[in-house]
Amino acid sequence: MSRQETIIIPSKTDIGALGNRINSETRKCHERINKEMAIKFPVAISEPKVYRQGIQMFYHIFKAIEDNLSEEVNKNTHYSDMLRKIWRPELSRTERLHKDLMLFYGGRPAKFESPILKKQIQSTEHIRQIAIERPYLLLAYMHVLYLALFAGGQFMYPKVAQSKKLFPGASSKNFEAASSDGTNFFRFDVEDPQKLRAAYKQDYELQTRNFLSEQEKEEVIEESKVAFDMICDGINEIESHNLNVLRQKAGFRTYIKSNFLVILLATLIVYCIVRVIVFRTPLY
Ligand code: HEM
């Protein structure tokens, strides 16, 4: 090996590394999410109301992870030191998503700060619960959701940033500024995000390899599947919520239309009666 060559930890072929084990055991989950994204992401980036619902879901999930993680690392428990050595504040997404949401909700935090949809409420409660009972399970979210930002996230970023439909109020002059204000989610405040990713993966591996028992590692792998499902279910929940709203609107329109016909018919009948009985004018 030449002097310049750097050792990547964990190597992609290291089948004992927890991160690699998670990737290999969640391959099907990732394929499922890719299929979902292939259909729903183009819709989201052409409709600001759908896009903001999507990042609102991510906001609640990332906030739950970061709130509970920060609580845990500030304690002095068996796991807090390990989690502290892995976590890097540059990865935090809560504030960045909050900024994006402020743009998409016109500066009205009351519109997005508390989860309303059932699955999102359940997800935040689930994260809180595991953090209390088995804090090492936070490692599942620390792998799945944060490393996704460096892979799928970097694929999505330019598409969101360049979507003319997402920032409709912006003119060609200030488009770049508006797009930048609404895409904090995808950026890291570091010179080289790929270095951050590599360092994070390395610390994750070094801290977990000997510290966790095999039983704990298996539980983290299982929880990683839950993390993927959480995102898939959350996306599907938004879709059914929007379909329900559309259905209700269509139902309301039909109701108004049918009422209008009834009123029209009644007016016609009254008109005929008045004409025939009161004015004794034949109808034809
Ligand atoms: C459009 C959607 C997505 C695309 C195109 C995509 C694409 C990719 C690609 C190409 C990789 C391999 C990167 C590498 O080997 O360095 C990857 C890895 C990964 N993705 Fe995705 N992804 C998407 C969405 C997601 C989502 C929503 C999640 C999480 C819920 C996710 C979680 C992951 C994880 C955990 C890895 C492994 C990262 C690592 O070990 O460094 N991906 N993705």
Architecture overview:
With 284 residues, the protein is mostly helical. The protein has one domain: Heme oxygenase-like (Heme Oxygenase, Chain A), CATH 1.20.910. Helix content is 69%, strand content 0%. The chain is built from 11 helices and no strands. It has helices spanning 18-25, 27-44, 48-73, 80-86, 94-104, 118-133, 138-148, 152-161, 175-181, 193-209, 214-278. Helix 1 (18-25) crosses helix 11 (214-278) and helix 6 runs antiparallel to helix 11. The protein is elongated and about 105 Å long. 29% of the residues are buried. The mean pLDDT is 93. The site of protoporphyrin IX containing FE has 18 residues, from helix 1, helix 2, helix 7, helix 8 and helix 11. The chain crosses the membrane at residues 136-157, 259-278. InterPro entries: Haem_Oase (IPR002051), Haem_Oase-like (IPR016053), Haem_Oase-like_multi-hlx (IPR016084). Keywords: Heme, Iron, Membrane, Metal-binding, Transmembrane, Transmembrane helix. This is DEBR0S4_03092g1_1. One of its GO terms (molecular function) is heme oxygenase (decyclizing) activity.
